[in-house]
């Protein structure tokens, strides 16, 4: 990898308005079997409303030692799976991507967007991404964070419980049928069955338009209005904690990027007991942002700024070169470095595009 070639600060003076719109292009499902994908909504889950607005005392750590490990990564492979199953070999990549010039996942896009603020949080995490141009399209993949934050062997008991509690809550609050059923809470928690979506977004700043193609995982659908919702857990009440605003910012953009306007929040106590469940409108989070001087428009402006910088850097490199960008925990700038086409070790370590995807012989 080269020495740093450029820097991008998340602390910038801004004005103007970012215009964002997103459209869902497709949906697909994974079952618990490794690699088994089905086009369509076979794994759709519905919100179970039987726990709403009731006093509860449910142990969110029950079954923690029987949980099934998640084997599927959050890399670009899911996006590749959908494309490979949707388009024949030799298809124009531009056509398959609906003219988008960037391909990524919702997670990295959300974390990039909130980086102007999240770096100040005690719970900030480092970011590391690799970007490569293929057939005039820029692919962006997020890698395991460089400081070991993603290494589960480093997790303490509290973090393990908190992670499992979120998955257990999903099991408790979702069911397979839109009405008349109840969740199966006796089976081991299995995070592998998924319902995923594919989106195209348009982000415009000062007349400069960027089109982004990305995938996401859906939590559940509310049967009464046919809208997807996001599931979240929170200690004591919405707003509790010194750094809640930063957590809320992450919640906000995870939902905003895929057009979700309502959260289902499970409130728990210090002992991981679920005490009640409530619907929470996404826009209500704006009140926390205003009190803390957070402007979600600035986040969108920075996302545009980041993507434009990646595009500029890659346009100056031979196709196949990898642009690596990294922001360390509690720092406010991204550092850019390059991996040359001839650097076999670097190319292997930071591979962005799968061999199977390349061998599909996409045309320009």
From TrEMBL:
Q: Where in the cell is it found?
A: Nucleus
Main subcellular location: nucleus
Q: Which InterPro entries match?
A: RAI1 (IPR013961), RAI1-like_fam (IPR039039)
Per UniProt, the keywords (alphabetical) are: Hydrolase, Metal-binding, Nuclease, Nucleotide-binding, Nucleus, RNA-binding
Identify a single GO molecular function assigned to this protein: metal ion binding
- The EC number on file is 3.6.1.-
Q: Which ranges carry the RAI1-like domain? A: 23-357
- Any one GO CC term of the record: nucleus
At the top level, the lineage of the source is: Eukaryota
Q: Which cofactor does it need?
A: a divalent metal cation
Function as written in the Swiss-Prot or TrEMBL entry: Decapping enzyme for NAD-capped RNAs: specifically hydrolyzes the nicotinamide adenine dinucleotide (NAD) cap from a subset of RNAs by removing the entire NAD moiety from the 5'-end of an NAD-capped RNA.
Family of the protein in this entry: Belongs to the DXO/Dom3Z family.
From the Swiss-Prot or TrEMBL record, give the protein name: Decapping nuclease
Q: Which organism is it from?
A: Heterodera schachtii (Sugarbeet cyst nematode worm)
Q: What are the top taxonomic ranks of the organism?
A: Eukaryota, Metazoa, Ecdysozoa, Nematoda, Chromadorea
């Amino acid at each position: 990898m080269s020495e740093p070639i450029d820097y991008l600060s998340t602390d910038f003076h801004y004005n103007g308005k970012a215009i964002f719109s997103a459209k869902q292009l497709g949906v697909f499902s994974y079952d618990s079997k490794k690699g088994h994908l089905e086009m369509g909504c076979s794994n759709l889950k519905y919100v179970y409303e039987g726990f709403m607005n009731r006093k509860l005392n449910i142990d969110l750590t029950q079954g923690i030692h029987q949980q099934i490990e998640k084997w599927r990564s959050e890399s670009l492979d899911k996006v590749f799976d959908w494309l490979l199953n949707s388009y024949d070999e030799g298809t124009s990549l531009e056509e398959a991507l609906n003219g988008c010039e960037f391909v990524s996942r919702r997670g990295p896009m959300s974390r990039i967007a909130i980086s102007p603020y999240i770096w100040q949080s005690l719970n900030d995490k480092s970011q590391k991404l690799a970007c490569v141009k293929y057939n005039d399209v820029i692919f962006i993949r997020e890698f395991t964070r460089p400081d070991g934050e993603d290494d589960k062997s480093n997790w303490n008991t509290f973090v393990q419980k908190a992670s499992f509690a979120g998955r257990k809550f999903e099991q408790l609050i979702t069911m397979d049928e839109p009405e008349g059923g109840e969740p199966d809470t006796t089976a081991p928690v299995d995070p592998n069955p998924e319902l995923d979506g594919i989106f195209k977004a348009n982000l415009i700043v000062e007349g400069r338009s960027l089109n982004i193609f990305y995938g996401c995982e859906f939590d559940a659908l509310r049967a009464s209005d046919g809208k997807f919702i996001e599931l979240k857990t929170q200690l004591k009440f919405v707003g509790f904690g010194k750094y809640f605003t930063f957590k809320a910012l992450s919640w906000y953009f995870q939902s905003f990027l895929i057009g979700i306007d309502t959260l289902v929040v499970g409130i728990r106590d210090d002992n991981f007991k679920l005490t009640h469940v409530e619907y929470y409108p996404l826009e209500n989070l704006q009140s926390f942002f205003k009190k803390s001087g957070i402007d979600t428009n600035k986040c969108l402006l920075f996302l545009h700024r980041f993507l434009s910088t990646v595009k500029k850097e890659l346009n100056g490199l031979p196709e196949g070169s990898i642009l690596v960008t990294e922001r360390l925990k509690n720092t406010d700038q991204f550092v850019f470095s390059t991996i040359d086409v001839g650097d076999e070790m670097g190319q292997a370590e930071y591979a962005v595009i799968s061999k199977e995807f390349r061998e599909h012989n996409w045309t320009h």
